[in-house]
Design goal:
This protein is mainly α. The protein has helices at 2-15, 19-31, 34-47, 55-75, 77-80, 83-88, 91-95, 101-106, 115-131, 138-169, 181-187, 196-205, 213-219, 227-232, 236-253. The protein has one domain (2-8, 18-253). The chain is globular, with a radius of gyration of 19 Å.
């Protein structure tokens, strides 16, 4: 943890060397998601509801998944740009250092400008939860926190899986954006509106459904019993992340040095 905080400090100070650029990018990240939430608002302005979900309820889905994506992009960006380490041969240097490759890649890059997107999503979340008819309890508040945390590590896990592919493909695959950016766009709506195969895939394979749809059912009071089960479904994200780490270690063991 001490080394990780050291990485954070070094990269934050390096990015703050260009303060104007940093703050302009942060402001840009703050306003970019407004076009998405505006699109959702226009949709509900025209149709009123979506499969029984009103605008404020879908706005919670939007805010949770965008907060998770912003945090993961901030702290797991090293895996998103991992292909450059393979192409340049710099990954060889990581292997001879007395620290895990996971920690070194994780600490190789942070995007602090994503706090702009995080701030915007936080505002939407506060407004949406205050406007929705929710009977809050300590367990529901904990569940909401787990939803954000679980979403963060699911996105981080996807970044790790994509980075692991680079051990065999060398270059990153753009098709992986289907699971990152595509997953973000899909998960900002309740899974109920999609085809059954999509629901199953994004519940049992990539567990986005365990981040917003299932636990949000509990928070909104739509479950017929089994409240504890619905409140704990975000824990599936931790299992997904653990499996991604196993795949990462498998990739590291099968890495072939460039010899440079």
């Amino acid at each position: 943890m001490k080394l990780f905080m050291r990485y954070l400090s070094i990269l934050f100070r390096s990015q703050m060397q260009y303060k104007t650029s940093f703050w302009l990018l942060t402001v840009g990240q703050f306003f970019t998601p407004f076009t998405m939430i505006a699109g959702i608002w226009f949709l509900f302005e025209r149709f009123g509801s979506l499969r029984g979900w009103d605008f404020h309820e879908v706005a919670i889905c939007f805010a949770v998944i965008h907060m998770a994506f912003a945090i993961s992009e901030c702290f797991a960006r090293g895996f998103d740009t991992f292909a450059s380490l393979i192409v340049s041969g710099d990954f060889d240097r990581l292997l001879v250092r007395p620290r895990s490759t996971f920690l070194q890649v994780l600490g190789s890059k942070f995007e602090f400008t994503r706090i702009g997107r995080l701030a915007q999503s936080s505002i939407v979340l506060i407004w949406a939860t205050a406007s929705a008819s929710i009977d809050w309890t300590p367990l529901k508040a904990l569940t909401l926190g787990l939803m954000i945390l679980s979403g963060t590590i699911i996105f981080a896990g996807i970044f790790i899986l994509v980075a692991t592919l680079c051990f065999w493909t060398v270059q990153g695959l753009e098709i992986a954006n289907i699971l990152t950016n595509g997953g973000k766009e899909m998960a900002q709506y309740p899974l109920q509106i999609y085809e059954r195969w999509v629901v199953r895939f994004f519940t049992f394979i990539i567990p986005f459904g365990c981040v917003n749809y299932l636990p949000l059912q509990y928070i909104l009071g739509r479950t017929d019993g089994d409240e504890m089960f619905y409140s704990l479904t975000p824990l599936a994200g931790f299992l997904f992340f653990f499996l991604c780490l196993i795949v990462w270690q498998f990739g590291v063991r099968h890495y072939r040095s460039t010899g440079s």
